[in-house]
Design a protein that fits this description.
heterodimer, A: mainly alpha, two-stranded antiparallel sheet, B: alpha+beta, Thrombin, subunit H, 6-stranded antiparallel β-barrel, 6-stranded antiparallel barrel, about 30% helix
Amino acid sequence: MMRYLILGIGLVLFFMEPVFGLFSPLKLGGEYYYIVPRFLIMFLIFVSVYFDTKHAMYYGLFFGLLYDVFFIDIIGLYSFLYPAICVVAGYTVKTVQRNLFVATLLTLVLTALFEFVLYQFFTLISLTDVPAGTFLATRLWPTMIANSLFLFVLGWAFKSVIVGRLIEREKNPSVY
Amino acid sequence: MFHFFSNKRLILLLLGVILLVALISFSLRDRDNVSLPEQLIKDGVGAGQMVFSGPAHFVTGIFDNVDSLLNTYQENKYLKSRLEEFAGVQAEVTDLRSENSELKALVGKEADMRDYNPIQATVIARNPDQWEEKVIINKGSSSGVLENMAVMTAQGLIGKVTLTTPFTSTVELISTQDPNYRVSAMVIGGKKDVFGLIEGYDSERRELLLKRIDADIDIKKGQQVVSSGLGGIFPKGIIIGEITEVAIDEFGLTKLAYIKPAAEFSLLNHVVIADRVMPEVDGEDNGETAEEEAP
């Protein structure tokens, strides 16, 4: 039962994202702000940092494929970027100290990078014509603020769940 | 870090990139129908999504209710002042309706482009990354939803169906940047109805562009724009918005109008899909017609 806990949390976050997406764009003082929920990729980065990069990649591929097919009908975009971000996270964390602060910071930086790569891609296929300045002001900043709030609240919970799973795996490695 | 790019892995990486580019270009083509595995995934994820969006709509519903309770006094005052007018308007509408049906019977006209069968649906998800303006609704081809049907809320047109699977469908909102997205529209309120095409969206002004209006025809700010039904799929008379500015287009040959959409695109919940009673034909509404066929 506990084996599927990480996958279960991933699924819940995957389904939560579009629900929170319904509230956006947010209108504040005549200006529209886009908030993109990025719960799943943040969780996957945590998995990659604390658990195992390989597992994080598989989960990333699985959820990325679901995301591509269900939402954007461009197959290969998220299913490439999710695992790629997990790999980057896994390699970065080997060179730095592994604690909650570093993990949070790394997650936020990578999420911002992820947003930016997506922006570049959609500009390339001319689905959007938003200038870079507008993108920063109305999308990237609000998105990062909202997501960092989410991470500050739930980061420690992610960590304790994942580390719990890690300890359990080390106790009986025969299952894997 | 360096050992990561050993020979075997490098080849795998290259193969992966090639596969990725192939997949992306395959799915970027305009595909008319969804392949079976995609349909299965869409329906499966859609079913899961409904479980989550139900409670979310319930919660936002509570907030909406509280919000409207707080405004009750103001609204009541306003509504009372409108109530007296209402009786008069109601009588007039009944009169005009009966006259209209009598006249229709007189000339033997049976079908009207205005008539449609409404299909009620609920929005279950909005594409969370919000680069493409798409929402997913909980009715699909098994409920009679077809591609290119008009989707609206009580306030006005919001978009059209772009993909259907048996139990879900994807709606592209009219605030999209997609150059193939056209809606044939008309401006009402003048001496004569003026026809044009809704083509494109100004994301900074958050307004739609109505193009291809004859330069000689006079249109003014404040006139209403509705769907014309001449595009072949949409019913006639769905409110789209109101003109805010009239300009000359880049070649100086036709006029261009900015239209403020009547419907609100954020926090969509219940939508209605319009299944037109009149037979559907190919036209601008499905975005496939060549340029020169436009009016």
